[in-house]
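Tutorial handout. Part one gives the primary structure; part two gives the three-dimensional structure as tokens.
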Amino acid sequence: MRMWLKHHRLTCGKFSAEVYNGTNSMELWLPVKTEETTMAFTAISKQVHSPLFDSLCSYLEETYQVKPVVEFSKCTMQYGWNVKYKKGGRSLCTLYPQEGSFLALVVIGTREMAEAEILLPFLTEYVQQAFAETKTGMQQKWLMIEVKNTEVLEDVKQLVALRRPAKGVTVRWV
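Part two.
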């Protein structure tokens, strides 16, 4: 990809790309520059206008010592701006802002699947239903969860903790 950009006299900083299997199509995710990220993140927070969004962002930043990465995705799953949190090269979760609310994407992979199934009865009915209705693909479940109350917010935190345990954070089993 970088050679193609260079050949066409185009420049680009860091980016992520995904090639669709069996096609000649590719999707690019371009992160916004640092000063734009702050502005974009502030605008996203204002658009969402939810204390749950601010609470989850603060929790992830403080607990996992990570910074949000604001990106624009043309992905058909959820087109538009998103806020990604990663730690140690692994995705913790991705937040998709909406007017007055937001979705949290937590990927439950092979490593976490058994623990997630044990944790499931302790989560809200809404998250249990989302888990049951989400198809498994490539041994993963991509859980798209609308965070609409504090109980669901706590469920998202528990699912993130399965992906990457944090010091002082324990997954609730009771």
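Part three, for discussion. The chain has six helices and eight strands. The longest strand covers residues 90-98.
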